[in-house]
Structure formats: C-alpha cells, structure tokens
Amino acid sequence: MRVEKVFGILLGVMLCTSCNIMKIVDRKQQKRFSKEEFVAYNFIGDSCSRFVQFRDSEKPRLMFLHGYGASGVGQYYRAALDLSDAYDVILPDLLHNGRSTSTSSDFSIEAQVEHIRLILDSLKISEPIAIIGNSYGGIVASYFADLYPNRVSKLGIYDSPILHYSSLYADSVAKAMGVGNIRNLLSPRTIFENKKSLDIVFYDQPYVPRFLRRQMVKYGSLPVRDRQVKLLEDLISNEKKMNNHQFTWTMPVYILWGKHDQLIPLSTAEGIIKDYKIPDSRVFIFEEAAHAVNVEHPEKFVEAVRKIMKE
To answer: For residue 104, what is the DSSP state?
Structure first.
C-alpha cells in the first residue's frame, strides 16, 4: 500500500470520528497482528517495561529494530506481515519508545543493548537470529552483534550513523531546513517542525493535513520528548568514542540504504562498506528513497530482506 493511500485512509477515519487517530491506527494494527497470531509481551522489572510483539511458529527468526521516536509495529507493520509467510518476526520497542518505558537515568546505547538481550532471554530465544536495525535502532543492532556475536546470525545496518557521522553535520541539516538543531528536527515541538521532520524522512513526503500533524505532535512527540531527547544527547556526548569504535562482527553484515537520505547520507554507508570490506552482493541501495525505505518502498524492502535471509 502506497504512503499516499495510507494517509488517505487515516484522513477518512479522522473525518468520521473525534478520537485520537494514533490510537485508532494502533488498535487496527494490534487486531490484525492478533489475527496473524502475533503475541504482545510486556516484561516488567528493574524499573523498565519491555514491550515486544512476536509470533512463534518455529520458522526462522528475524528481529527488526526501529528508528528514533518510532516503535516496532509502527515502523515495520507492513514488512512483518509480508514476511510472516516464511519468518517469525520479532518487533521490540526500544526503551523510551513505543510501549517500552524506563524510570532509569541511563539513556545509553549499552542500556538499549541489554534491553534487547533481556527481551530475547524472556522470550527464551537463545539461538542466533538475524537482526536488521534502522537509524538509532541500527546503532543498537550493531553494538548488540558486537557484544553478543553468538546470538546474531546476520546483521543488517539500515540507514544508521554507526560511524562516519557527526552531530555538527546533523545540526547543519536541521538548520538548513529552518529548524534550530537536530533535537527539534527529530523530536518536533510544532507543526512546522513536524513537516520538516517528515521532509527529512521521506524522499517524496505525501500530503499530510494540518490537523493530523497537530495530533502527531500532541500525542506522538510531546509526551515523550524530554526522555527521547536524552537518548540523542547521550549519542552526542559519546560521539568521539563511537566514531573510534572498532566492531568485531563475526557474522555476515548487510547494508540497506536510501540513496537520497539527507539525514544519514550515502557517504556514511560508503565509509562503513569500505572500513569493513562489505561485498557488493551484501549492499542494497534504494533509488528514490530517503531515510525510511520500508515505508516508501515496502515491496523492494521486503524483497531485499528475503535475499538477505536466503543467503
């Protein structure tokens, strides 16, 4: 389903009801997932609530990690359904995103890595699985694979700033778009910032009515903004250490990237490919795509994932 059609459906729903559209969409997605035998788990303990959707039908397992400010189901709903014929898809929400919450003051990547480990432990999944992570989720996936190589069979890095990236560049992108800094671009406070945020995500942003943008800010961004911004601030404070980190991946590594990603440019992917000598057969560059290939070109994204899983 094309992005334009999705927003058309959302618009139709909004015209028929005064309810929060985000809750309406979430209920519809949960209902469909339940029909497909996905189970929602919420593991509570150690000041955290760890949420994951998972269907266990004894097929090969594949975990997707979402980007900053998103959720597992919110970002990968279409891909999870399309791939469920051949794979059991695992969709966790990262801490301070979606339904995974924490009262801890630890906003580090290391805390997210342990979050994923504890979710897998709670699901009693100990065998190696494939993991593909987008943007912030790609950082988590990369460090998880580095720290727990025996638990990862394949690693997919999808438009992610794991290396060859700087907060100065990110801020310069935000300022060029008329937004003060990367915090306001990725965690918008206003309708204007929401539009610019989606401009950076999409190669060709679909029309979004103003009232829907207002709801996206009011119900999606503002309630969690303070804690999510702290995730960004932790990355910025550890920028030098992260850019100097040497990964020791032992599993096959794949690159998935939107050719026209302005936020995490293709040059970042090229640096990773060069540093880690990733062969061309494991690189997927998507034309007419920016930072969210799986949303703009769901069929092509799923096709690439199937190739990765079959290799």
So the answer is: -
